[in-house]
Design a protein that fits this description.
single chain; alpha/beta; Rossmann fold; 2 domains; seven-stranded parallel sheet; 8 helices; 7 strands; 47% helix; SDR; SDR_fam; NAD(P)-bd_dom_sf; 3-oxoacyl-[acyl-carrier protein] reductase
Length: 259
């Protein structure tokens, strides 16, 4: 299927590895010129080289912290009017809400709610003028099924979800869609790190903890970044113009509800 994206431009945040990288690769494969952002220069440049060699697409890199005003200014200077915006940032740490003060809450809101909103605010009007725009926020399956120890993430990402639900209905008439991708367990560096920490805490071998968690999922496996990236590319496609204000949960069936 031709997704109708050749010649479009995309700004993809936190794209040097993991789910953000998966989105950048899939978009580039469809002929999109991608600007990828991350804080680490070495991983960012390695990813850019990999994407260029695999797809032949134009890839622009920018090492910055997208959660800061300075980082966003640099990102928007590098890609001032993207057709596709993919927001993404690492989640806040787990813990007990009794241990969190205002500083912890503000940091979570800044990274996982306010930064995407600022990026949307800076890019949506040119999308409206061109009568084409795709905004895709990488949030979390915790928006659908909150995780008790991830209260900071639950709160910040749900706030972003509510904001986007209203805005999506305002801009749909202009050919601009806003959707959220909600990842469950995907085979990423983050999942592997968390598994290793869980194994150390429990005293069990890492492989045992990994397999145990994998078998608890109805699919009996973890998702791949390629699957995630392709879902992102489809939501960005011309065929997905009637999909907006939605939360696409990708968790292998882990969430047990009907709706």
């Amino acid at each position: 299927m031709d997704l109708g994206l050749k010649g479009k431009t995309a700004l993809v945040c936190a794209a040097s590895k993991g789910l953000g990288k998966g989105c950048a690769v899939s978009l580039a494969r469809e002929g999109v010129d991608v600007t990828i952002l991350a804080r680490g220069v070495e991983a960012l440049e390695a990813t850019a080289k990999e994407i260029r060699e695999a797809t032949g697409a134009k890839v622009t890199t920018l090492a910055c912290d997208i959660t800061t005003p300075e980082g966003r200014q640099k990102a928007l200077a590098a890609c001032p009017a993207p057709d596709i915006l993919v927001t993404n940032a690492g989640g806040p740490p787990p813990g007990d809400f009794r241990q969190w003060g205002e500083a912890e809450w503000l940091a979570a809101l800044k990274a996982n709610m306010l930064t995407p909103i600022e990026l949307i605010k800076a890019t949506i009007d040119p999308m409206i003028q061109r009568r084409f725009g795709r905004i895709i926020n990488i949030t979390s399956g915790a928006v659908k099924m909150p995780i008790d120890v991830l209260g900071l993430s639950n709160g910040a990402r749900t706030g972003l979800t509510g904001f986007c639900a209203g805005l999506a209905r305002q801009v749909a008439q202009h050919g601009v869609t806003i959707n959220n991708l909600l990842p469950g367990p995907f085979d990423t560096d983050r999942l592997r790190t968390n598994t290793r920490l869980a194994a150390e805490k429990s005293g069990k071998p890492v492989e045992e903890v990994w397999n145990q968690r994998m078998m608890q999922n109805p699919s009996r496996r973890f998702g791949t970044v390629e699957e995630f990236g392709d879902a992102c590319a489809f939501l960005a496609s011309s065929q997905a113009g009637f999909i907006t204000g939605q939360n696409l949960l990708m968790d292998g069936g882990h969430f047990p509800g009907t709706l």
